[in-house]
TrEMBL record:
One of its GO terms (molecular function) is ATP binding. ATP binds at residues 260-262, 276-279, 350-353. The gene is serS. This is Serine--tRNA ligase. GO terms for biological process: seryl-tRNA aminoacylation. Keywords: Aminoacyl-tRNA synthetase, ATP-binding, Cytoplasm, Ligase, Nucleotide-binding, Protein biosynthesis. It comes from Adhaeretor mobilis. PROSITE patterns: AA_TRNA_LIGASE_II. L-serine binds at residues 229, 260, 283, 384.
Amino acid sequence: MLDKKFILDNVELVQKNCDNRGAKANVARFAELETNCRELQQEIEELSRQANVVSKSIGKAKDDAEREQRKNEGRELRESKDAKQAELDRISAEAGAIYRSMPNMTHKETPIGDEDASRELRHGATQVRPLGFPVQDHVDLGVQHDLIDLEGGARVAGNGFYFLRNEGALLELALQQYAIEMLVAEGFIPTITPDLARGDIVAGVGFIPRGPETQIYSVENNDLNLVATAEITLGGLYADQVIDEEQLPIKLCGISHCFRTEAGAAGRASRGLYRVHQFTKVEMFAFTLPEQSEDMHNYLCELECQFFDGLGIPYKVLDIASKDLGGPAYRKFDLEAWMPGRGDGGEYGEVTSTSNCLDYQARRLNVRYRTKGEKGTKFVHTLNGTAVAISRAIIAILENCQQADGSIIVPEVLQKWVGKERIGGGE
């Protein structure tokens, strides 16, 4: 959420930002309603005060006629107050709906426009190179080496689920170990988070827990939801808490399963492991002081780049355009890895992202910090970043590291956990 005072003081600026991000929010209407709410609240408080005065005066009435008159006066004041309260509730509901639909403000360097306006920032240390032989995609390679069982997953849970087998399972565990080892060395606190979260936490982070637009699986007859990312659980960890300034920044990395309905996803680009209903992810999350968040955002992006440079996977980093940002993001960087078997002749596919959300999520979750010697508290800034979404990293590894004989070279940084240098090829 944005600061309401900021919105009221900058109606045109906030409306322009909503337009740039494709958000249908009538900021002027919100400002009008919010002003009315404040006026009504004052009127209600005054009517309540007057009713209390009249109520106390009833016992001091000189006779029954005066007592009855004061009772009637008190009744009229309470009825007027109740009518004002009903009006306030109606207006507040409309204002609240508009307020919740407003996205975060946008970084001055963020490209304005649709997805195509996203700006390329850099390429990885490994360059895209022709493989020099007919390329197989990860599905064919997975079947060939008994690494991925999509048919078995469909029998057990439906389309979009899968089994990882043999070195496929070992690759998943190796990628987790590689990510955690790297992040712990950088001072992140390793965590294994719940795979479920309450609806208020899911909504506070910025996801829609229920309704026709949700991408979240909900537990029937319960206020619990399967998480789409550990961003939800890590972000909710300090909900309604006050953190001492000396503790910031707090850097967490969380391992969780991620569950997504992926409604409407289809096509060859979504084949195999690229768009599935369940996968494992190692997520980075940071709580910072306001002045620390931009540097932290660049740092999280750099860690994502180091991770894929270590794997020897070609990639590019994009500064995501305004209309492709999620509501909480002030600025977002995506890392897209080269996938030789994707599309016709290879394509880049998103494998990680990192977002600076300023205090947008912190306001919704009520996460604050206190400065020693100062009165009051302030909202922290929150940031998230994918260290590795395992299923998509496996796609990039299988397709980029395949050899002419169909074998797959295991990236050197993963070999100690997989236990071999090559999958297939006689080993």
